[in-house]
Amino acid sequence: MRVVIAEDNALLREGMVLLLNSAGHEVVAVASSGPEVLPALLEHRPDVAVLDVRMPPGFRDEGLRAALAARREMPGLPVLVLSQYVEETYAAELLADGASGLGYLLKDRVGRVEEFLDALERVVAGGTALDPEVVKELMTRRRDDPVDSLTPREREVLHLMAEGRDNATIAATLVVSERAVSKHIGNVFAKLGLPPSDSGHRRVLAVLAYLNKGAGQGAS
Fold first, then answer.
1. Which of 116, 162, 209, 214 has the fewest C-beta atoms lying within 10 Å of its C-beta?
2. Are the beta carbons of 128 and 56 closer than 8 angstroms?
3. Same-domain status, 143 and 50
4. Where a domain ends, among 87, 112, 130?
């Protein structure tokens, strides 16, 4: 896949370049500040953009703004956003885009090579890749609502769904049958008032949209 990387930390940026090249991918451009990002994306039209949330000159949300602008210019552009910490407001704003091919990972995850590459591939395929810590924060934001009615097992299933895991992976992770996972998912959708769907990332985005609504309310 063809990748554009936007990261101001030179060590991390070059590390990702080496990692992706060694995995058989092509880094077509790198950006070290917010204003460089959108022009690079428009010029190279990559398969995916890997963007830091906070970049020069302001170190606020330049990377996120570039990601949102890029997806307006290039609808459906897969974007994997990296952040040093869990920033619920930024995660909520990104997810409010409501489209497929989105990821939000903590930078520590980049060092876990297989997890990072797996997340990147899921995003490029149109799925979602949300860091477990981000999911945890979004779920914690939900207060006095149907999420509270979920059993511990249903919460585990919801958590893994929000990370973008399929039924087989969830079953293997929880050491249960896929039939049991399907039953739990049905219960989750019923309790959250969400229509069931068999279309992979769409069901995840529905759950994330629900969780995100609470995160946005909590952050305002």
1. 209
2. no
3. no
4. 130
**Quick check: 103 and 50 in contact, CB under 8 A?**
no
Q: Which neighbouring-strand residues pair with 31?
A: 6
Q: Are 87 and 95 in contact (CB under 8 A)?
A: no
How do the pLDDT tens digits run along the chain, 220 residues long?
999 999 999 999 999 999 999 999 999 999 999 899 999 999 999 999 999 988 999 888 888 888 888 888 898 899 998 988 766 666 666 666 555 788 888 888 788 888 899 989 989 988 888 887 777 776 666 555 677 788 889 888 888 887 778 889 999 999 999 999 989 888 887 777 766 555 555 566 556 655 655 444 443 3
Q: Are residues 156 and 112 in the same domain?
A: no
Domain of residue 191, residue span? 136-219
Q: Total domain count for the chain? A: 2
Model pTM score: 0.70
- Quick check: 28 and 2 in contact, CB under 8 A? yes
Residue with tokens 């460089």: 36
The encoded tokens of residue 47 equal 């398969």
Strand pairing category for 2-6 and 26-31: parallel
